[in-house]
Each structure stands twice: as C-alpha cells, then as structure tokens.
Amino acid sequence: MHKSDSFNPGFAIHSISNPMGFLYGEGVFGPEVEYRRLDDIRKSLLNPRCEGPEIVYAIAMDVGKTVHRQLLKDLHLLFGVVTYAAGKLGEEPVRSQGHVHKISSYSGWSTPEIYEIWEGEAVIYMQEYDEDNPGRCFAVFAKPGDVVIVPPDWAHATISANPESPLTFGAWCDRDYGFVYDGIKRHKGIAWFPAFSEQNEIQWRANQTYKRSELICKSPNRYEGLGIQPGKPIYTIFEEEPETFLYVPKPQLKAGLWDNFEP
C-alpha cells in the first residue's frame, strides 16, 4: 500500500484496481481473489435495480506471512483482506449486503471480527439482531489505521464512505468462518440503508421491514481488554504476541466483554 492516505498493514500486500485484487510480496502467501458482483447483492439494496460497478469487491481469505502459515492454522486464526470498487450503487455507497457469522464448529459460538482500515473511508454498520427488532444499531466511521470490532452474533455490513476512492481493509476472523444471510434477506437488507446526499455525505434511511430503531453514529471505541494498540497494525500485534486474538476463534475467552458491547 504505497498511497499517502493508506496504512501500512505490517506485511507486503498491495491492493490493485485493474484487475481488482491484491499483489502478495516476498514472504507472503494468499489465494486468488473471489469476486462479489452487483447481481449477487441486489436484493439487499435500497434500489435493487440500481446501476453500479459490475464487480463490487474482491476478497481473499487466508493471507499472511509464510513463516506464520502453520501457526495461524494451529491457533485457528485467519486473516482476510478485501478491496472495494470506487463509485456508487445507485444512491447507495458501495457496500456488502450484510450477514451474521455462523456458529463455529470449533467454539460453538458465532465469532467476532476485527476490522482494520487500510485505504479509503469506511463505515462498519452493525445491529444486534437480524430479526424484526434489530436492537441497538451502530454506524462506526473509520479511516486508515482505525480498528473496529464486531461482536459475536451481530449482523453487520461494510460500507465505503467515499465514492471517489476504493476501500481496502484487513480483518482477523475465525478459520471456521461462514456467513448467515437469512435474516438480512428476509428483511430485504440491513435495518438502516446508507444513501449519499448531493454533497456525497451519507444519510440514513430506515428499512421499514424492521421495527422502529435508533441509529448511533460514532467513532471506533478503544476496545480496552481486547488487545488493540492504536497505530500498531493488528497483524504486527499478532506477530509479537500470537495469542492476543485467540478470542476471535474462542469468543468465550472474553465472554464478559460481549455483554452490552459498544463498538
């Protein structure tokens, strides 16, 4: 990541836009990217017939330094990277459709996720439930270097807040990751739709298929007790203290912190 407004993730990986994806540097492993297309997510958008980039984002699950490959498997940790196209989806920002993490066979829990923004501007949107009552809803605005943690069981979506720039981020995940879309699909999207104003500022529109809720817009928390060190890449934290993020595959290790969690 060589751009002046980007964050050094702590290992040699670079996002590219044509074709969309990543270049892995010396000593770094990673798979071919998978693509999510506009047609894949239309039913979850404010306007399912909108126009926008054909490829919305590229995702590579399981990347890192080659020297850590076995250690990551042993700890049941996985590092994923995603890069979004610039532009808009009709009135909406480029975004994911939203999901809940499945119950992991490793821990018996839905698992948390640790996001780190590398390039662009992001909103990590999350709601407590994917049911008729979405519970507490948060829109966490984040810039390069910011970390946002999504707790177990919460529905969440990642949104690019700047249509002029791609969005790129990394995330710590459980190796037994999986996504549940049922509740989001049943409600035709998340509880609050983001939409750009004429000045490209995000405004929020309530999804009427849910019961009335309040949306709290905020900056990321400090996440005391969860191993985050401001300004230090989350991969570097793992490299220095490999067991720091064991609560990702084993959320029960931090069970008390998930109650009344505020992102």
Task: Provide structural commentary.
By secondary structure, this protein is mainly β. It has one domain: Jelly Rolls (Sandwich), CATH 2.60.120.10. 10% of the residues lie in helices and 35% in strands. The protein is built from five helices and 20 strands. The protein has helices at 38-41, 69-75, 182-186, 234-240, 255-258; strands at 13-17, 20-24, 28-29, 34-37, 55-61, 64-65, 77-84, 88-89, 92-93, 100-101, 113-119, 122-127, 137-142, 147-150, 155-160, 167-174, 179-180, 192-196, 202-206, 215-218. The strands form seven sheets. Strands 4-5-7-16-11-14 form a six-stranded antiparallel beta sheet. A four-stranded mixed beta sheet has the order 15-12-13-20, with no helix packed on it. The model has no long low-confidence stretch (mean pLDDT 96). InterPro entries: G6P_isomerase_prok, RmlC-like_jellyroll, RmlC_Cupin_sf. Residues 55-210 form the Glucose-6-phosphate isomerase prokaryote domain. This is glucose-6-phosphate isomerase. It catalyses: alpha-D-glucose 6-phosphate = beta-D-fructose 6-phosphate. Pfam families: GPI (PF06560).
